[in-house]
Amino acid sequence: YALEELFEDLGRRLPVMISGTITDASGRTLSGQTTEAFWNSVRHANPLSVGLNCALGAEELRPYLEELSTKADTFVSAHPNAGLPNEFGEYDQTPEEMAAIVSEFAQSGLVNIIGGCCGSTPEHIRAIADAVRSMAPRKIPERSKACRLSGLEPFNIEADSLFVNVGERTNVTGSARFKRLIVEEDFTTALEVALEQVENGAQIIDINMDEGMLESKEAMVRFLNLIAGEPDIAR
User: pTM for the complete prediction?
Assistant: First the structure.
């Protein structure tokens, strides 16, 4: 939304390139999202490209890049580190070693844009460029239109999806208990209401703070920020 405000101020649109970081072998970003959830959360920006960079070496990054490549209907980028850091925080992977691994990304049709992050030098980038120069870029897949949502994990509603369970107790007009908790600013107990719904099978939570006795915007922002910090709810 900040980008849309910028484009409106500029009076023109600019290309948007987005890159996320998978932190470790858990396969999650810094905010805790899986690769597909990360994609779902940024697709609305209509990016020119989406990709992964940093934290992992090319070899370790590959499975997450492969997943992103199958999900994203935009260009895909990869900027891995030159291997993993040694005990001194330095990177030992040579340009030739890194180029050999990264060129397989291109050979397998996983990427449109390729480069390097931590530990990579002009020599690394030159070796990568030479290795992929004659290779064709990834073909962008066609994906059927669907409602694609995300918390920490993806939630996709497709044409063949079954019923979706929506929890409606975090609604000040539909639950007297929840309304009382929000009016009294007992957000800790209000979070328990949300958690109860998830534990009882809710896949989506309906949150409503539209009530005359509330500063609705402030209450909504505060509650959503608290939920974002609770992985059992925000999943």
Answer: 0.86
Count CB atoms within 10 A of the CB of residue 83.
Answer: 22
Q: What is the pLDDT of residues 221-235, one digit of tens each?
A: 999 999 988 989 988
Query: Mean of the pLDDT values across residues 174-189?
Result: 94
- CA angle, residues 193, 232, 146, in degrees to nearest 5: 95
Domain boundaries, the chain: 2-132, 162-234
Q: Which of 226, 233, 155 is nearest to 195 (CA)?
A: 233
List, as own/partner pairs, every contact residues 98-104 make where C-beta atoms lie below 8 angstroms and the sequence separation is at least 24, other chains included.
Answer: 98/58, 98/124, 98/127, 98/128, 99/124, 99/127, 99/128, 99/130, 99/131, 100/131, 101/57, 101/58, 101/59, 101/62, 102/58, 102/78, 102/128, 102/131, 102/132, 103/128, 103/131, 103/132, 103/135, 104/62
Residue type, 66: E
Q: Distance between CA 142 and CA 10 in Å, rounded?
A: 31
* Nearest C-alpha neighbor of 57 from the set 17, 112, 97: 97
Tokens 């390097």 correspond to: 116
The strand pair at 154-157 and 147-150 is best described as: antiparallel
The CATH topology of domain 2-132 is TIM Barrel (3.20.20)
